[in-house]
Amino acid sequence: MRERSSESPLSVELTVDWALTTEDDQISPHHAEDLIRHALVQECQTGSWHFAIRFVNDLEMAQLHETWLGDLSPTDILTFAYDPEDGAQGGDIVISLDTAAPNATDAGWRLSDELHFLMLHGLLHVLGWDDHSATYRAAMLERQQELLASWKPREDIE
Question: What is the pTM assigned to this prediction?
Answer without folding.
Answer: 0.85
